[in-house]
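User: I'm designing a mutation panel for ABC transporter ATP-binding protein and want to avoid disrupting the core. Could you give me a predicted structure to guide residue selection? Please restate the sequence first so the numbering is unambiguous.

Assistant: Good idea. Sequence first, for numbering, then the predicted structure tokens:
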Amino acid sequence: MIEVRGLTKRYGPTLAVDDLSFQVRPGSVTGFLGPNGAGKSTTMRMILGLDRPTAGTALIAGKPYRDLDHPLRTVGALLDAKWVHPNRSARSHLRWMAASNGIPDSRVDEVLALVGLTEVAGKKAGGFSLGMSQRLGLAGALLGDPQVLLFDEPVNGLDPEGIVWIRKFMQRLAAEGRTVLVSSHLLSEMALTAEHLVVIGRGRLIADTSVREFVDRASESVVRVRSPQLEALRSLLTAQGLTVREEGGTTHDKPSLTVLDSTTEAIGELAAQSGIVLHELAGQTGSLEDAFMKLTGDQVQYHGTGAAELLEGFRTAPAQTPLQPQTPPGYPPAHAKEAGR
Ligand SMILES: Nc1ncnc2c1ncn2[C@@H]1O[C@H](COP(=O)(O)OP(=O)(O)OP(=O)(O)O)[C@@H](O)[C@H]1O
């Protein structure tokens, strides 16, 4: 279990994380979703004791990271997969990590097998592809067999095969009863990976909801309707206060109306009462972006930005910048304590 309460981080004039509260429960993958710069990495770094909050607390298994007796046995994290000594082999990298955390050597070969790196365990990690580096990072996160796992944009830059592998791996870890928090700026990826979503924008909580609910909101909202009496239908619907948009009307596509925030039942009955003939009446599965827009309208305005601008961040987000410092928890052991945090 991860519990974040009133978490706030200010970097000079930038409020990176703003009074954020949420819980991450065991047994399912929780997606931590937000556009680039929303504050996901900062939040994760505070949870992992790598950054000190300006206000608020982040607890893992009921304690701040710095108070954990065995950090690596409690929480594992994959922040930056390229954080390895390039001349070390995968096995010696993990052995060094295990030794400095009081974890028996035998666990190293177990985790190498878990992530499918046994055959290349003796090879220098510096020559690994991004996908292999991600697996090595995962092996490191799993060394202490922790119940809580955090992954920051784990599929960034991976090929489709690597993405599916990581996704299934995270789901398996959750199915074993672990608490899994995974950040992403991609709605579509999270819809496939996570069961629960914590959505943030500009450092603030926007939604804390199941993926199913999130998707349902999208599918409920839009109805497409065609009629030979399109103008009469449009007047009828707008008189009811509904938002109506005309679509199509090209040689390939007959004109239709898209009605927001209504149902096929309501529109069918209205049309029947007015004697309007319908040629098509279909509930449309809205995109996740539609659901996001619906869900965030007010909060987005609160931040003084348009929903479209925020969504633009989801669609055209540039590659993630590396985290600073690039140090996973437990490296070196009790480093947070030594730093006096
Ligand atoms: N060390 C730092 N010093 C100053 N500003 C920072 C620092 N780290 C993050 N920020 C700022 O805090 C805000 C949140 O950044 P953060 O990296 O947490 O967002 P994010 O959601 O993880 O996005 P990304 O996916 O791009 O990493 C941004 O405006 C960023 O520029």
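For picking mutation sites, this is relevant: The first strand starts at residue 2 and ends at 11. The mean pLDDT is 81.
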